[in-house]
Amino acid sequence: MGIFDFLGGSGPEKALKLKSKVTQKYGDPTTRQKALQQLGEMKIPEAVSVLLHRYNITVEPLTTDADEKEHVFELVKGFGQDAVAPTTEFLRKNEQATSWALRVLEALLPEGEVIGIVVDALGALSTQYMRNPEKKVVLLHYVTGKQDPRIPAVVLPHLDDMADEVKIAALKALGPLKHEPAREPILHVLTAGDSGRRVQVAAIEALLESGFNVQSHREKVESVISEPFFVDGSGVVKRRA
């Protein structure tokens, strides 16, 4: 009889049975913490999947919540490459805990591979409405400032998102990339009558950082731009010193 048979079921079955304890918000916290430790010792991919579900709940007090989540991070990281597939699947399927999933992947993979996973996720989310846009925003923040040819094409569609937070995050990601196909969409966001002021400012800053010429839209741009920004004689957005 193997150890998992003694515990009640095979390894994968035992891991799944512990899920209810891992996600138990109330009651004795030691029950939840013991389940986390048991999963960490199993060293099978199914245990990683169950451990990650701890990130979907918040418990009181918040210091305990933070300590447990940090402990889960260390446990999952300890699975090494066996944690990559379940963590990637968790990132793809769950709307919550995106930043934790990214942190795990960053600890296990080279940056280029993590970018590839994020690019795939952003592509899948580009036409998907989400009542809570946090996942999109976290993913967009991750690629901001990174120079990778795969990034612009999956960021661009998010300029059409219904949530201002997503549009702003997409604009901040696109500005430094200087991606020419983004010029017209950024100008459209800036001059659209239904764009909020925060979105307009983010669009202006994206144009400033990219150095795109706005001469063909100068009149519309100047109707919404304000100090300290201005359009210079060559049609480029500048900021006054």
Please give a structural write-up.
The protein is mostly helical. 61% of the residues lie in helices and 2% in strands. It is built from 15 helices and 2 strands. It has helices spanning 3-8, 11-17, 19-22, 29-42, 45-52, 62-77, 84-93, 98-108, 111-125, 134-143, 151-155, 164-174, 183-191, 197-210, 218-224, and strands spanning 229-231, 237-239. It has a two-stranded antiparallel ribbon with strand order 1-2. It is elongated and about 70 Å long. The termini are far apart.
Approximately how much helix is present in the residues? 55-70%
**Strand composition percent:** under 5%
Apparent shape = elongated
DSSP helical segment count: 15
Order of helices and strands: HHHHHHHHHHHHHHHEE
Average pLDDT score: 94
Gap between N and C termini, in Å?
75 Å
Enumerate the strands of the largest sheet in spatial order, edge to edge or round the barrel: 1-2
Structure summary:
By secondary structure, the chain is an all-alpha fold. Helices cover 61% and strands 2% of the residues.
Provide key terms for this protein.
241 residues, mainly alpha, 61% helix, elongated, two-stranded antiparallel sheet
Spell out the blueprint of helices and strands.
Layout: H1 3-8, H2 11-17, H3 19-22, H4 29-42, H5 45-52, H6 62-77, H7 84-93, H8 98-108, H9 111-125, H10 134-143, H11 151-155, H12 164-174, H13 183-191, H14 197-210, H15 218-224, E1 229-231, E2 237-239
Antiparallel strand pairs: 1-2
